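Lab channel / #folding
Pinned by the channel admin:
"Please post every new chain as: sequence first, then the structure tokens as a reply. Keep commentary short and put observations after the output so the thread stays searchable."

First post following the new format, from NK:
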Amino acid sequence: MGARLAGLLVKELLQFLRDPLMLVLILWLYTAEVVICAYALSFEVENMPLAIVDLDRTPQSRTLVQGFLATDVFADAGRPAGATEAGAWLQNGRARVALIVPPGFQRDLLGDRRPNLQLLLDGSNSNMAAQARGYALEIVGRFAATGAGGGAAAGPMPMVRVWYNRDQTFTAFVVLSMVALAALMVGVIHPAASIVREKEAGTIEQLRVTPTRTPELFVAKTLPTLVMGLLSVFPSLLIVWWFGIPLRGSLLLFLGLTAIFLLSAIGIGVLIASVSRTLQQALLLAFFGLFPLMFLSGTLAPIESMPKALQIASLASPLRHYMDVTLGIFLKGLGIRDLWPSALALLAIGISLFGIAIHIFRQKDA
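Reply from TO:
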């Protein structure tokens, strides 16, 4: 068995190295694509057009307005005459947010009464609206905390504390999620394409009549992809360093859990190969499978905002558990004591997928 497996491994490794296009593709996914997406994809709110309706026109109201305009979040879109015109600006896209300061704002502040402020948000982009609301509440909170209201006039304000990403930048999440997506794509597509290509060439039928067993064939198809996937992590770590993302946890733990994740991703690729007859079928199945895994991983939308049924279905996505691992190690400094449920889930998914694929192959041999 050892000699057969060694021969298969040498064959697969040589075949892997003879395909320069695949090597370039892997390097591209782990480096250039991560950089491009990190610079291009951003859900941070900057220069959001703000319509200002100051019906009080007092020093206190101007101080509050300046608090909004002093940040990079809001940009002065103009001064509509009233709330009706501000609503029209939101409707036609001239403004995304409208701040309406009512008459008597300063009088209420100095008279120990809490004044009312109105903030209108364009909710067509829910992510942008949610962030704008958070920033606006923080600005109003700072206004009250500086004593602008004359003591207790503004009432108690909540204290905002941001953990793990104090600057609230989206770059760290984009970079780390793109590294995880690259690992998933390589792990799924390469073994699927490799096995199906041998089916089309007829060499897999030749292997079936030899003493080579199905598990040995799968091991031979798995190890080269696993090794290349782990090696490709190192140039991606340079990208992570380039964007100033800290590694607060253990690098060895990250590599170990990345290997388990790659096994589960390769398991998906092997399963796709077991039910595909042509390379075209395998690639189509791979891409159709990758998108649900991405959607259910929390990389595109928070899992907590999904329907309950999809939250349960997301547990079957290895990318969800790997994102918990990656964000936990890099941003939170978590160890195996905290991440063992994710590691166990990845291991269970990988073993299950390999078991199903081996069963399908054996049924075809029977």
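NK: The chain has two domains: 2-41+169-365, 48-145.
TO: also worth noting, Residues 149-162 have pLDDT under 50 and may be disordered.
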